[in-house]
Design goal:
This protein is mainly alpha-helical. It has helices at 6-20, 24-28, 34-41, 49-58, 63-67, 75-88, 93-110, 113-129, 133-150, 153-169, 173-186, 195-211, 215-232, 238-251, 255-271, 275-291, 295-312, 315-331, 335-346, 352-366, 373-387, 394-409, 413-430. α10 packs antiparallel against α11.
């Protein structure tokens, strides 16, 4: 029996899987990894006969179907299928998937790297629009490799950028960083690089690094992006860039720079009429003022944020803003206002840590009422449980100390001991 070449084999396996509506994980089962099936389908590896027998059985297809080499392809038909894929992406995703499978099948038979790259990109966009971001990242990366073979470095850069975006959406941050970095490395290889492409990769990488907590690297990358934006009047993800810089300056201990960039993000979002993002920027700006002890300014910004969220009908975000106002009220010595705001916030808060903070605020207020002390102990415990056993902040240390002290006043020293010990440990670590 003559065995089909690797690309034909890959095409047939993928086409049959899609026809049956199976995922790569379902085909992999317990015998293989999803990555192995992805590599097989992208023609990157040649499975052993034993592996192919298992795959064929899982696809309910005779192994001969995958092995026999009797195909032919029409380049004009492949070109038409690629165009059809993009035409259907927005209106008929299943139709686009069928067209992309046909295009990929024909392109793999023909072996033309340029055609193959475009067919893989089409299939990648189908996967992306189906929210199968891992599959999309694999296909974009395979498209980039085909563009490299074809000598089209600009398109290779764009495919790598798309692969990074898909991997980022899949929360595979290491892969996303690798793709974006490879895209940046391609810039000097292009005779006349499109600076807009360069900008997009910088922005995407900077925001990824922000999500990874790599603030120093992210800040440098995003500042480069801002410089390019100013030169070329290109405002790609401009509000997000300012917002991310605010996040990174805050983490790096530069509150004034953080406030400046959050305010710039707010101004941009207001100008382009994106009120929800504008409110998020204001909220974070308020957080910095809160951290620096400027409670009056934090209160003003949180109130403005709450008004925007309520006008937009964003119930959960509004609850978060109320939670922030409750913290301000407590720090300003307004316990009853803090209690009322915490109760209102808890009606719609879903974030466990924010709920934990509200329980702690309620506990602090009620602990001052002798009739409510036992209830306050329960609230402290609920709050700390929601904040988590590994929570590491000054607020948690204070709550542990307050609960321990309250239990000591109630002559419950045995219960107080672990909370006081945790508070001491946290204070020691936080002071370095």
């Amino acid at each position: 029996m003559a065995r089909a070449d690797r690309t034909t084999l890959a095409r047939r396996i993928k086409a049959r899987r899609l026809e049956l509506g199976l995922t790569q994980r379902e085909v992999a089962g317990d015998d293989f990894t999803r990555g192995f099936i992805s590599q097989v389908e992208n023609g990157l590896i040649d499975p052993s006969l034993k592996s192919l027998e298992i795959i064929a059985q899982r696809l309910g297809t005779p192994i001969s179907y995958f092995l026999e080499d009797n195909d032919a392809a029409d380049p004009v038909a492949v070109e038409q299928s690629i165009r059809r894929t993009y035409e259907l992406l927005e209106t008929d995703l299943e139709g686009a998937a069928a067209a992309s499978a046909t295009a990929l099948s024909g392109a793999e038979k023909l072996g033309n790297p340029s055609l193959l790259a475009r067919a893989r990109s089409g299939a990648a966009w189908v996967a992306y629009n189906k929210s199968d971001f891992s599959e999309a990242a694999d296909l974009f990366a395979a498209a980039a490799e085909a563009h490299r073979t074809a000598g089209n470095t600009t398109q290779m850069l764009r495919a790598l950028n798309a692969a990074g975006s898909a991997a980022h959406r899949a929360k595979d941050y290491a892969a996303a960083e690798e793709y974006y970095t490879s895209a940046l490395e391609a810039v000097p290889l292009i005779h006349e690089p499109d600076l807009h492409d360069h900008l997009r990769v910088l922005v995407n990488l900077g925001i990824l690094l922000t999500h990874q907590g790599k603030s120093a690297e992210a800040k440098n990358i995003l500042e480069q992006a801002l410089s390019l934006s100013a030169i070329h009047k290109e405002y790609y993800r401009y509000g997000e860039v300012y917002h991310a810089l605010g996040v990174n300056y805050r983490r790096l201990g530069f509150p004034n720079k953080a406030i400046e960039h959050y305010q710039l993000a707010f101004q941009f979002y207001e100008a382009v009429q994106e009120p929800l993002n504008a409110a998020h920027a204001l909220l974070n700006c308020g957080n910095v003022y809160m951290e620096t002890g400027d409670y009056a300014e934090a209160r003003r910004l949180y109130r403005q944020t709450l008004d925007i969220y309520e006008e937009l009908g964003e119930t959960e975000h509004a609850a978060n803003a109320r939670a922030k106002l409750a913290s301000v009220a407590w720090h300003e010595g307004c316990p009853q206002e803090a209690l009322a705001l915490a109760d209102a916030a808890l009606q719609h808060l879903t974030d466990e840590k924010e709920r934990g903070r509200m329980f702690v605020i309620k506990a602090r207020v009620l602990a001052k009422d002798e009739a409510q002390v036992t209830f306050a102990v329960d609230l402290y415990r609920q709050g700390l449980a929601l904040l988590g056993p590994s929570a590491d902040s000054n607020d948690v240390a204070e709550a542990c100390y307050e609960l321990g002290d309250l239990l000591m006043r109630l002559d419950r020293a045995g219960e107080a001991s672990p909370y006081l010990a945790r508070a001491a440990d946290l204070y020691r670590r936080l002071k370095g």
